[in-house]
TrEMBL record:
Keywords, in A-Z order: Aminoacyl-tRNA synthetase, ATP-binding, Ligase, Metal-binding, Nucleotide-binding, Protein biosynthesis, Zinc
Binding residues for Zn(2+): C99, C101, Y122, C126
Gene behind the chain: gluQ
Lineage, top ranks: Bacteria, Pseudomonadati, Pseudomonadota, Betaproteobacteria, Burkholderiales
Zinc recorded as keyword: yes
Protein name as it appears in the record: Glutamyl-Q tRNA(Asp) synthetase
Binding site for ATP: K241
Manner of cofactor binding, per the entry note: Binds 1 zinc ion per subunit.
Chain location of the short sequence motif 'HIGH' region per the record: 10-20
Biological process per Gene Ontology, one example term: tRNA modification
Chain sites annotated for binding L-glutamate: R7, F8, A9, P10, S11, E43, Y182, R200
Domain of life the protein comes from: Bacteria
One Gene Ontology term, aspect cellular component: cytosol
Length: 291
């Protein structure tokens, strides 16, 4: 095995659908093409959104496609101490501050500023104090000026750049309901698992600059990133249960995985078994993404 370590990190909010299967397949092919490890992480950090039984259902579905985690799956719900430790380091270094704003107040203050039509960047109301209010969430202070720009090259989407100050603002690490924010959890998890390559859906392209900035603040390595195009419904919305994703056909896994491969630009391959399919598809993937 090479030093490559990749992962598939589903949120257990429902069964796997074609969109999440495409992400799983892409991360699986990339790991195989690099002769690396592929690790499943169950992202159940968001307690309120987690659906009981969904994680086991996802693992069983992956197994139906012969995708098995090379290490025991990691569960975010068991990693509170790691998130507390990462948060503590950022806090000790002076990068974190409490925020007393409600969603409503943030929306209102954006309406009253020039930022109105730009983005929904947090305006920094609590940067210099809580103004007598109780702390609700905890935010990471992002820099101003040139230091706010984070750039990276995505292996599929090409050159990316985001100004954290104007496009995002100081972002939440610990939410008002006491839950850890996805951005902190994912960075702590990827770092601890030694993930070298992140392959996931393009809906997370916009989060990547925040994650890279957090990695820099924590002094951990930045993995390579590849974001695959999103599978959308006819209205152009990301597929989910709410937007009409139908259940995967598990009776014919070869046909279903071939469907998923088409979204990655891998056309019909004449094979009879899943394992043959993976070997051809890995070759196709390697030609494009492993120079
Ligand atoms: N849990 C996220 C999702 O299911 C993926 C996070 C990631 O791959 O970084 O959308």
């Amino acid at each position: 095995m090479s030093g490559y370590r990749g992962r598939f990190a589903p949120s257990p909010t429902g069964p796997l659908h074609i969109g999440s299967l495409v992400s799983a397949l892409a991360s699986w092919l990339d790991a195989r093409a690099h002769r690396g490890a592929w690790i499943v992480r169950i992202e159940d950090v968001d307690g309120p959104r987690t659906v009981p039984g969904a994680a086991d259902d996802i693992l069983a579905t992956l197994a139906r496609f012969h995708m098995h985690s090379d290490e025991p799956p990691a569960w975010q719900s068991q990693r509170d101490e790691a998130y507390e430790a990462a948060f503590g380091r950022l806090q000790a270094a002076g990068f974190v501050y409490p925020c007393g704003c409600t969603r409503r107040e943030i929306a209102d203050s954006l309406l009253n500023t020039h930022m109105r039509h730009a983005t929904l960047a947090y305006p920094g109301t609590c940067r210099d104090g809580l103004h007598g209010r109780a702390p609700r969430a905890w935010r990471l202070r992002v820099p101003n000026g040139v230091a706010a720009r984070v750039s990276f090259v995505d292996r599929w989407q090409g050159a990316q750049s985001q100004d954290l100050a104007t496009e995002v603002g100081d972002f939440v690490l610990k939410r008002a309901d006491g839950q850890w924010a996805y951005q902190l959890a994912v960075v702590a998890d990827d770092a601890e698992a030694g993930i070298t390559h992140v392959v996931r859906g393009a809906d997370l392209l916009d989060s990547t600059a925040r994650q890279i900035y957090l990695q820099q603040r924590l002094g951990v390595a930045t993995p390579a990133y590849l974001h695959v195009p999103l599978v959308t419904n006819d209205d152009g919305e990301k597929l989910s249960k709410q937007t009409g994703a139908t259940a995967l056909n598990l009776d014919d896994p070869l046909a279903t995985i071939s469907d998923a491969a088409r979204y990655l630009g891998i056309g019909a391959v004449a094979v009879r078994t899943l394992d043959e399919f993976y070997s051809v598809a890995t070759g196709e993937w390697a030609k494009r993404f492993c120079p």
